[in-house]
Amino acid sequence: MTVKLRAVDEDDLPFLYRLTSHPDHTGLHQWYGWQNPHRLRRRWEDDGLVGEDGGVLIITNDDPVGFVSWSKQIANRAGFYWSMGLIVAPDFRGKGLGTEAQKLLVRYLFDHTTVNRIEASTEIDNFAEQRALEKAGFTREGVLRGAGFRAGRWHDGVLYGIVRADLDHEL
């Protein structure tokens, strides 16, 4: 299946809300509790969910199958990097769509911004996402002990990174 990334349309907002706020859609590693149902609409009305500090794009293969997101992280006084993530809808998981979407987002961010580094993290037992990141060209950089709180306890994470120089070798 070929995937594309596109801007979020108003009709996508209920889909995004389900993927970020409903336990049957978020997946085990993304369920952080119920979210404000108006937050996405307010941000979409403000900037279409794409701004200088990050954004959200829909993953599509004709119909929406998920989303990718990125946010600016300050590295030091002279620079920043992007932190990215995604959620694929339950019916489309395990088909390689997330891997392809991550490749597209990496290419997009390197082509349209001056950053040298993009990173992503996931819980230490989310093996499917770890495989997807590695297939997308990311390098496992380390374990983040007790980095994320979910489901009433702290979870270890795994940090992955990709730099511009990796593009010639991986994508």
From TrEMBL:
Single Gene Ontology MF annotation: protein N-terminal-serine acetyltransferase activity
Any one cellular-component term (Gene Ontology): cytoplasm
Identification of the protein by name: GNAT family N-acetyltransferase
Source organism of the structure: Nonomuraea turkmeniaca
Phylogenetic placement of the source organism: Bacteria, Bacillati, Actinomycetota, Actinomycetes, Streptosporangiales
SUPFAM superfamilies the record matches: Acyl-CoA N-acyltransferases (Nat)
Keywords: Transferase
Domain N-acetyltransferase: 3-165
Keyword Transferase listed: yes
The keyword Transmembrane is annotated on this UniProt entry: no
